[in-house]
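Batch manifest line 595
LIGAND: adenosine-5'-triphosphate
JOB: complex structure
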Amino acid sequence: MSEQKKKYPFFKTLLRIIPLQFKSAPWNCIIENSLAIVHGASFSLSVIATQYLFDAIANAATGNAGFWDCLIPLLILAGVTFGQQIINGVQNFHGIGILLPKSAGGLTDLLHRKLQRIDPAQFEDTIFLDNLNKAREGVRAITMFCMVAFVMVSFYGVYFLTIGVYLFSLKPMLLITLLLAFIPAISAQIVRAKVFTKLEDQSAPLRREYEYYQKTICDREYFKETRVLGGFQFFHKLFSRTMELLTRKQWQAERKTALLQLALNLTTFAGMALSTYILFTATMAGEISVGAFAAVFTQLGSIFSIMQEIVNQHIGNMNRDIGKVVNFIRLLDMPEKSGTEGSPDFTKGIVAEGISFTYPGREKPAVRNVSFTLVDGETIAIVGENGAGKSTLVRLLTGIYRPSDGQVTVGGLDTAETAPACVYQGISGVFQKYQRYKMTLGENVAISDTRTKVDTAKINDSLKEADAELGSDISFETMLSPEFNGIDLSGGQWQRVAIARGLYRANGFIVLDEPTSAIDPVEETRIYKQFQKLAEGKCAVIVTHRLGSAKLAHRVVVMDAGEIIDVGTHDELLSRPGKYADMWVAQAQWYDRAQ
Ligand SMILES: Nc1ncnc2c1ncn2[C@@H]1O[C@H](COP(=O)(O)OP(=O)(O)OP(=O)(O)O)[C@@H](O)[C@H]1O
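JOB STATUS: finished
ARTIFACT:
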């Protein structure tokens, strides 16, 4: 059964998430529940104290009790009421101020760890991205959900158990009427759950859309282009339309459930009237004392409002959030990219045998039946037109994606069978879509090797090797982000920092996937020459459109429409007619100066 279709019943889901919540903040869960138990029991204590007080007053009126007989239950009642207020305050503060943030942190951590173990190819899949968006919403929902579940058992559970025993001892029918009054309300909540689960499923893609449109309007990375190209109105319209759609869906769900709520209120009103009647007739018939009548009568309002609070508010919210909670669990249940342990031995090189890969949502494979061997100490350049499959091949060779057909071995490790962390441990890469971390210059470089202690001399060397001359006013501590009180770099400077990051990481297999597009061709050739020196004795892959750089590699692989159409040295490929020779002629004038 696919993950999407797998069913998650309410109680099974609840049993799955309670241990997760408990693990994220064990002591706080214990404290919260203990407070809730005491708080719940205190309500019943106040009912019993009220009964004693009224009985004592009734007896005093007939001369059967004195002042002290009335004062003691009065003091007990005052003490219980005061204690209730204190416990309530402490419980609220602890629940909202401590337990909630702590467990939300724990669950977020769990989600992040899970994401690390999910196949990166999933991040290209729209359904997965929707599920991820839903699961993020689930972090907040799950914490509230569990808190309510705890409170239901430890506070309301204790309250209703003790008050139930008390009412039953007075008159069983009273308890039965109260319970029956809430059955229609509970059924209404089941319908509500279904409505909101469906709403959540429909909302996630819309939410992702409007979050994206909002980014195009407000984010710095889009700001210049959307203003200059006049895209603001366009994106604003899309944003408003998606928002409107989402709001309309929410409104429809709320309207549907609000009608049910109305029916619930009528039922509870009828239940309250009937209970009062039973209580009155029992007192008149002398079945219960005046004190018990007064205690129950004053409590009836509280019992109903607490029951309504449970059904309308808590069960209602739980039902509304169950969809989000299920999405969180669904993500946790996703298959992980795991495998056997091992260490790459790069003397065995990198071998691809008949590999193919198709992106989710695409029919044509991006890489088709590709085979080649990169021997130890060899540098290979991969060239080809846009969309030829170069970057996809690199992702397959580095184990980021697993081939749908064929086999890739990196230093003797089969990427489909080995734990990803083991495959990655000896690889360093600079990719086309490298990151511009909003961190200091030093962190931007050293982040590629968090396994070892930060080595400032090595950061310096890497920046030098990448020819990253950023200016005398920029040091390792300079924050590279205007959003965080720092400065920005030019496109070419960022690329050099990214290359330095790739060089900083210890490796046996280096990949440069065209990280030099913002650097002029002459400079690029210089960087690649330096890279070639660093790659000596290692396995290396260069992806480039500029054949002046491909020339530096031992062999060149030419790709077209996902397939390898030619392999050879630069000179071999030039000596025969073909795509490489055509591309070289078209680009030759760039390199005349660089020779
Ligand atoms: N995330 C994705 N989802 C679906 N298709 C994709 C995705 N990424 C790439 N493709 C498709 O896979 C094919 C190969 O893309 P790839 O990025 O590997 O080409 P490339 O040779 O590196 O291109 P370029 O020189 O433009 O960087 C293209 O047809 C592209 O449209």
